[in-house]
Amino acid sequence: MPYKYRDYSHIAAEASLAAGDQGKYWEMHDLLLERGAKLDRDGLVQMAAKLGLDVKRFAADIDTMKHKDLLERDKALAVSINLYETPTYFINGRKVVGNREFEYLKNVIDEELARAKK
Questions:
Q1: Which residues 6+ apart lie within 8 Å of 45 measured at CB?
Q2: Taking the model in full, what pTM does it have?
Q3: CA distance 74 to 52
Q4: Which of 5, 13, 30, 97 has the fewest CB atoms within 10 Å, i.e. is most exposed?
C-alpha cells in the first residue's frame, strides 16, 4: 500500500503488483526494501530486469498504472482508519503502531486471546 507522504511509494506499489502479475511479487518486495533509494522508474525497471521479468510488460504496467484502482482503494481504506505510520499491526482489531519488541507484541496477543475466550 502506498504511503501518502512518500514520493515514490505509489510507483513502488505499482511495481510490486506488476511483478506479482509475473509471479515475482515477493522477490520485488525484497528488492524494494533492499534498494529503497532507487525507487524511480529507471531503478524499478532495472530491478525487474534483475528478476528476469518481461521488462516491456513490466514497464507498460507501471507506466499505465495498471493497478491504480486497487491502490486507490487501499489508500482510501488507510485514510478511513487513520493509518499513516509503519509498521502498524492490527491484532484482533487492536491497533499497534510502531516498531515494537517481541515481548510487547506477545503480551498484546496473549491479552487478545484471553479476551476472545471470555
A1: 55, 58, 59
A2: 0.74
A3: 28
A4: 5
